[in-house]
């Protein structure tokens, strides 16, 4: 197994840094030997794509993720269906191939969330399908101060309906079919809940601006725009509202005080994300690390078959993150 021969480069021309690995078919050995380099790249840039490891399958992705992170987490409160391929290794979120998945931070609404995302490309699409990234500190600095101040003062509210027909069934999202366990989870995680004819409705208020626990950077950290109903394709939104009723959408967001978020605010947030988007086409066998606090990620529309698997590690509790200036 050869040593690292090509160092990572800073973010250039809208591309995340790429680290070339020459692993001689020993991906686990290469990662173990180069953990310091990987962590330096991740801490320095918030994301790094490793090319040359030739990651083969979900099981190997899990082994690599366990080398890279301190601990993997089991996902709860997912916003879209996933398939579990290996212990704590999942498929990408199910999302229409012709629609973009907008910028977000994984589980930014949960009380326990991953600090590190580990993605692996098992099959690259014919075109598109990039997992794009955006620097959360740069996004925050570029947002209009009045929008930031409102969300920093009041937070943001996420309203979800877990149903059997559209979205994620509550049994899958919470990993149990016992309603009492779901209720206990919601109480322990500062989430209001009610059982409805369609399933489960939850409501949670979260802070929108976080401070990175290592770098101290002030970050735009939430899923306000992505999970707002106005980000949906208008035809899809109208159809869902017709079928499920205006209060039955799988998810939407509001200001923390419950006031609806105007369309122009959602548009501005998405436009700022777009200005700070960086991406590189996937190649089969690629490994990508993302600091989930510092870096938002998205998925571009694509054609052809695409198989990206993900593991989530380095869990952090919201209580361990600084949310205010004090």
UniProtKB/TrEMBL annotation:
This is TauD/TfdA family dioxygenase. Pfam families: TauD. PANTHER family: GAMMA-BUTYROBETAINE HYDROXYLASE-RELATED, TAUD_TFDA-LIKE DOMAIN-CONTAINING PROTEIN. Residues 33-311 form the TauD/TfdA-like domain. The keyword Oxidoreductase applies. Its cofactor is Fe(2+). Its EC number is 1.14.11.-. The keyword Oxidoreductase applies. Keywords: Antibiotic biosynthesis, Dioxygenase, Iron, Oxidoreductase.
């Amino acid at each position: 197994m050869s040593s690292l021969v090509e160092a990572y480069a800073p973010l250039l021309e809208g591309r995340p840094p790429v680290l070339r690995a020459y692993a001689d078919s020993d991906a686990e050995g290469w990662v173990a030997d180069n953990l310091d380099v990987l962590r330096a790249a991740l801490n320095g840039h918030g994301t790094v794509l490793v090319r040359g490891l030739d990651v083969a399958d979900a099981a190997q992705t899990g082994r690599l993720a366990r080398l890279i992170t301190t601990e993997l987490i089991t996902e709860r409160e997912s916003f879209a269906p996933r398939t579990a391929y290996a212990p704590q290794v999942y498929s990408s979120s199910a999302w229409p191939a012709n629609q973009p998945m907008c910028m977000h931070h994984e589980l930014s609404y949960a009380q326990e969330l991953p600090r590190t995302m580990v993605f692996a490309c098992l099959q690259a699409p014919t075109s598109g399908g990039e997992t794009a990234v955006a620097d959360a500190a740069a996004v925050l600095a570029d947002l209009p101060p009045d929008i930031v101040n409102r969300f920093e003062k009041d937070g943001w509210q996420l309203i979800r309906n877990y149903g059997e027909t559209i979205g994620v069934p509550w049994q899958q999202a919470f990993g149990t079919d016992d309603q009492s366990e779901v209720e206990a989870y919601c109480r322990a995680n500062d989430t209001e809940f009610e059982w409805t004819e369609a399933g489960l409705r939850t409501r949670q208020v979260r802070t929108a601006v976080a401070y990175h626990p290592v770098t101290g950077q002030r970050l735009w950290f939430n899923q306000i725009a992505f999970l707002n109903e106005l980000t949906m394709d208008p035809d899809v939104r109208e159809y869902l509202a017709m079928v499920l009723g205006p209060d039955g959408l799988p998810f939407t967001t509001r200001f923390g005080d419950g006031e609806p978020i105007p369309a122009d605010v959602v548009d501005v947030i998405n436009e700022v994300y777009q200005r700070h988007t960086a991406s590189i086409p996937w190649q089969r066998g690629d490994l990508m690390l993302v600091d989930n606090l510092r870096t938002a990620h998205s998925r571009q529309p694509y054609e052809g078959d695409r198989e990206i698997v993900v593991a989530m590690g380095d869990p952090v509790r919201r209580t361990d993150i600084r949310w205010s200036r004090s």
